[in-house]
Design goal:
- Helix content is about 35%, strand content about 25%.
- With about 250 residues, it is an alpha/beta fold.
- It folds into 2 domains: about 160 residues, Rossmann fold; about 70 residues, no CATH class.
- The strands form 2 sheets. A 7-stranded mixed β-sheet has the order 1-11-10-4-9-8-7, sandwiched between helices. Strands 3-2-5-6 form a 4-stranded antiparallel β-sheet, with helices on one face.
- The protein is globular, with a radius of gyration of 18 Å.
């Protein structure tokens, strides 16, 4: 069982995403072993751990890119385990993958609008596009530029914006800070807090534990495919085991 470290008097939000006994992997290689966790409605939650711990595999399984071998994935009370990626997206889960995965040859605007390809509410799509441009003004300035020619930080902004354009209820982001300068990571963290402030639930996967704990309020630590600790980021950030293993303190 994972160790739980909770703040005195804290009361978790009503779960939006509930995972129970999840097992997943690639071919003959099993990566996740009986992972159980929940993400509260409206929360900004992070999943941290070393490279290869299974963080990205977890997000890929939730989003339908991988089929779980066992376990349950319930979203707003409905079972999602085994559903294809387009069905998961239609239910309200958007996945910003590691490495951005923008489409070469398409403009920033077109990459953003691809996030809304399942939607038919055209006026609301334009409202969300305006919101993304307000959140990241550089994207509006460069909306006709090939998205893959942007800087790394701008590409991450575009990838997050594309996720927002699906109007999700849960936004999952894999490795926010990967390859980015600290100043850009700080700017993206501020944007996530602003997005979360609208009521959107966010699940952030991050190898940089200090960055994740500065942004998120709740955290799960994954080690070798298992959840080993869970609690508030404030409490986990002061835990000697976490500080020594992941923060070099």
């Amino acid at each position: 069982m994972p160790e739980t470290v909770e703040a005195p008097g804290s009361s978790p939000a009503e779960p939006l995403l509930e995972i129970d006994g999840l097992q997943s992997g690639y071919g003959d290689v099993q990566v996740l072993w009986d992972v159980s966790l929940s993400v509260g409605r409206g929360d900004l939650t992070c999943i941290v751990g070393s490279n290869g711990a299974g963080k990205s595999t977890l997000l890929r399984t939730i989003s339908g890119l991988l089929t779980p071998r066992a376990g349950s994935i319930r979203f707003d009370g409905e079972e999602l385990a085994g559903q294809p990626a387009d069905a998961v997206l239609a239910r309200g889960i958007a996945h910003v993958p590691e490495g951005r995965r923008l489409f070469k040859g398409l403009s920033v605007r077109d990459n953003l609008l691809l996030g809304a390809y399942l939607r038919r509410d055209r006026d609301a799509v334009q409202e969300d596009l305006a919101f993304v441009y307000g959140l990241f003004p550089i994207l509006k300035d460069r909306q006709w530029q090939d998205a893959t020619t942007l800087s790394g930080g701008e590409q991450q902004m575009c990838a997050i914006g594309r996720g927002i354009m699906s109007r999700p209820r849960l936004l999952m982001i894999d490795e926010l800070s990967l390859g980015l300068a600290p100043r850009l990571v700080e700017r993206l963290g501020e944007a996530l807090l602003q997005i979360n402030g609208t009521g959107l639930t966010i699940l952030l996967v991050e190898q940089d534990v200090m960055t994740a704990f500065e942004i998120a309020r709740q955290a799960f630590v994954i080690e070798t495919g298992r959840v080993s600790m869970t609690g508030t980021t404030e409490r986990l950030g002061s835990d000697p085991k976490i500080r020594e293993a992941y923060m070099g303190l």
